[in-house]
Specification:
This protein is an alpha+beta fold. 56% of the residues lie in helices and 19% in strands. The chain contains 10 helices and 5 strands. The longest helix has 25 residues, at 96-120. The two termini are 24 Å apart.
Length: 230
């Protein structure tokens, strides 16, 4: 697998937690994981089991991948914060209804990206799920924000380190960004949407997301290449 594809696979695997982890999850009073590391572990445990059991279906049926994302991953992702960040400065004066429209469009786009990655790399993802190794470490944590470092090694992914950013809303930690090699997936989304909207028009952002004209994977690879050269 060449370097850009390997990077894309890593993002597909790691973007919303498709990693085995050795963190023993404890639960809060609601029966949910209590710490940022445990949230990463929780997403992984359920999603990996589904991938292992349904790899053939996920390789051919995009709707199955979208369903997996919506049911097992989305509850642990802060799409509201992602939408406000992607909107940029315009979010401060934006109508809440417009932010919600953008959030819904962004969520749908991310779900389709996730399902598409599973389609393209179903076998590689399953291989990694079975043999990959991940070490999690909390880099920082306060009342609202946390960063968890994930060191990854396994089939198709060699010695990759990611910074997983989480935000605590309604007593639940949720992932809102992943960064590796100095490149943030949230910044890639924001820059692509700002370019597509020519400065922050919400309707243009939503249209770009719905039409699929925001090529996040390509933008990620370009940003990663620039970061490696700098």
């Amino acid at each position: 697998m060449n370097a850009p594809k390997a990077l894309t696979l890593a993002i597909a695997l790691l973007l919303f937690g498709l990693l085995p982890a050795s963190v023993a999850a404890s639960a809060n009073a609601a029966g949910e994981p209590a710490s940022p590391e445990e949230v990463v572990h929780e997403v992984v445990t359920e999603a990996l089991q589904t991938i292992a059991e349904e790899r053939d279906t996920l390789a051919t049926d995009r709707a199955a991948g979208v369903e997996l994302f919506n049911e097992q991953v989305l509850p642990w992702v802060d799409t509201s914060l992602m939408a406000r960040f992607a909107m940029g400065p315009a979010a401060r004066q934006a109508d809440p209804a417009d932010i919600e429209r953008l959030r819904a469009a962004l969520t749908k786009r991310v779900a389709n990206l996730y399902a598409g990655a599973l389609q393209r790399y179903a076998e590689e993802a399953a291989d990694f799920a079975e043999e990959g190794e991940v070490t999690l470490r909390t880099v920082s944590e306060d009342d609202k924000r946390a960063i968890v470092s994930a060191k990854v090694r396994g089939p198709h992914v060699d010695d990759l380190t990611l910074r997983i950013q989480l935000y605590k809303r309604d007593d639940r930690w949720r992932v809102f960004d992943i960064e590796t090699s100095g490149v943030s997936i949230l910044l890639v989304f924001r820059d692509a949407l700002q370019a597509a909207s020519h400065g922050g028009d919400v309707d243009a952002m939503i249209a770009a997301l719905e039409e699929g004209s925001v090529n996040v994977e390509e933008a990620w690879e370009e940003e990663s290449a620039e970061s490696a050269d700098s």
